[in-house]
Design brief:
six-stranded mixed β-sheet, Rossmann fold, single chain, 6 strands, binds S-adenosylmethionine, alpha/beta, 186 residues
Length: 186
């Protein structure tokens, strides 16, 4: 997914230097790409199995709806494919918490599926985010056009069947994929 690194490049461009929170950081892949000598990424992740303490990252254990940091300490916060936001209650609580820990003037960025592409079309259910809904909350939308690229059809179908079920039919090793970046200045 996004082998060309367009999503990382976009985040790298918009995120400020300083202290940045990665909400639902998974295995720390994105945090590792976005850290620099001027930017410290704090990956926060609730699933202990995902946390890799061997990485040079200052991991935090926690959930979006109860972030274990003081008010206004981060220059920015982002979440990539943080599908936990789709539960409305968690979303409201999570967004309030993210706003609480980001400094006034800081940036919030949420990355999710935009839909309208070959990848999302394979799903038996709607896995696209709702840009109108994010806009109603004051977020701006930027579309990043990228792709799922595989080395073989076998590799493609192994992953795609894992995602979408054994009945999946696909004959492509490259699928268009549109990513939505929703951004808000606090
Ligand atoms: C689809 S994964 C994305 C991981 C990572 N952001 C990435 O882009 O590779 C979603 C992650 O959110 C974490 N998660 C689930 N519920 C959460 C919550 N309430 N608050 C924060 N993270 C959560 C999961 O443990 C998982 O690591």
């Amino acid at each position: 997914m996004d082998r060309d690194g367009k999503v990382i490049a976009y985040l790298d461009e918009i995120l400020p230097n300083g202290l940045v929170l990665d909400v639902g950081a998974g295995n720390g892949f994105t945090a590792m790409k976005l850290r620099s000598s001027n930017r410290t990424i704090i990956p926060m992740e609730p699933d202990a199995k995902m946390i890799d303490p061997s990485l040079p990252l200052a991991w935090a254990w926690g959930v979006a709806q109860d972030i274990p940091f003081h008010n206004a300490v981060f220059d920015a916060a982002y979440a990539t494919w943080a599908f936990f936001f789709q539960g409305i209650k968690t979303f409201d609580e999570g967004l309030q918490e993210i706003k609480r820990v980001v400094k006034p003037g800081g940036l919030i960025a949420i990355i999710d599926n935009a839909g309208g592409d070959e990848f999302c079309a394979l799903s038996p259910r709607n896995i696209s985010s709702n840009a109108d809904w994010w806009a109603s909350l004051g977020f701006r939308t930027t579309i990043i056009k990228t792709a799922y690229k595989f080395d073989s059809l076998e590799e493609a179908n192994e992953l795609l069947r894992f995602y979408f079920g054994d009945g999946l039919k696909n004959d492509k090793i490259e699928l268009s994929y549109r990513v939505a970046a929703y951004t808000l200045r606090v």
